[in-house]
Amino acid sequence: MNHYQLDNDPTDEESQNLLFHPTTSRSRSTTPALTAAVLLVLTLTPFFAPSYTHLPPHYQQLAKNCAGPSPTPGCANPHNEKVFIATILYDKHGTLAGGKWGERVLALIQLLGPENVFLSIYENDSGLVGQAALNDFEQRVPCKHKIVFDSHVSLSEFSNITLPDGTQRTKRVAWLSELRNRALRPLDRFTGEEENDTDGIGSTKFDKVLFLNDIVFQPMDGAHLLFDTNRYADGQADYVAACALDWFRPFRIYDIYALRDAEGFANYQTVYPFFQRNGKAASRADILAQTDAVRVRSCWGGMMAMQARYVQNLDRLPPSPAFETVGGHVVDPDRPRNITAPVRFRHEPEAYYDACECCLFSADLALVAKNEGVQAGIVVNPYIRVAYSEKILRWLPIARRWERLLFLTFEFQSWFMPAAENPYRAVEQGETFEEEVWEGGGWKIKKRAGRNGLFCGVRDMQLLQREGKRPGESGSNWVNTKMPPGQTLKFKSWWGEILPGTWRNDWTKASSAEQDAFFELPSGPGA
């Protein structure tokens, strides 16, 4: 009997099963077809729809200029632009300066031309092994440089915030801001007198600044980011700042803490296309169009290139007596000042409100450029990809070929992941707004003038471990926090935790050791 041509009075047991369960036959017939379709998509995608795989022609030409085992110094710097490279290190085992990271930095200097580069490294609290590795590395640096090793940076140098129990603690972002600014200190003074400048500090007017994290990267990608991003027909790259994408898994980016889309929306999904359909969704549209200059309001991505004129001071003395002091660039929320160049890293000083120093840096760069009438802005270049391990870097060229398929995963997750809410996202510098702050024993609404970069804000707070100590061999030196309840504005905490309404009583009943850690949450891996 043909079970696909049943009469009206079937007697065969299998026929009756089909009548009472009509989907059975369809599922049996469609399952192989669906499987075949999925396999076909998986097979064809890397060949016909890979993501950010085929470099634009000018990228290919720049790489061709440096082909071969011994490229000509400066081969990736066609206009001989002057580049200031800055980085901060924590290198307890000496594996960064003494390993592949150091080799790649030296290779990048050769690609840019040693005569065109100034290298600034600031390293602290890394011990004797880290210091020895840095000293050995310095002997191999072929360009002008300033390499500083501080055996210890005390937290007593920093201003603190007060927790609800009266404890004084240091914000992690305050610490990072200061260290990054120390790496930029050779840009604080300018004389223009090369004949009297023995170490190269203060005599060169730079075109670009490249800030590097302790990342795994390809040296040529540093050149592509600097000179090829959003390049016009005249051969000049057009951006205020341009960032790489940094990856901690083959399909997942890392630094969403600093990343904001073209309208300042945060997004905490880490897979392609990275940006949700917020507002006009310009960032999302740029990613889907595979452009090399995705418009954003802020980024970092482990590697950021920027126009030096917004960062370098071109006067003999710093702009103010407090310019090189710890916390000297903080904007007082009660009495905000306008942002001016040269831009430096800063942090938000109040409790239970943080903003990534790199996000604020992007916001300030964009503002000073806008005030000069510059049309360019902050962009992400998804062709430029860095990682935090050699293994992940090797996987990235393969992973990006299937990356577009994660669009479905992203859309599915978006149904269940609420939007990242920041009630101050659209507030601009100088605008009057109401801000909810933790003061003394509770939350209060204050009317304030807007300060730049409020779109960077998060209702979280990261604290350094006491005296910055790192538990274990590679533990983190910071923790997230638990915060008191009672807010009235809708401002979700993503990495923190809201304490229960009984927290005061709970704290009173806790032991001394429990009270010390009462407001702390364990942090993830990293520094």
UniProtKB/TrEMBL annotation:
User: Which keywords appear in this protein's UniProt record, sorted alphabetically?
Assistant: Glycosyltransferase, Transferase
Single GO MF descriptor: glycosyltransferase activity
Q: Which InterPro entries match?
A: Mannosyltransferase_CMT1
User: Per its record, how is this protein called by name?
Assistant: Cryptococcal mannosyltransferase 1-domain-containing protein
Organism of provenance: Podospora appendiculata
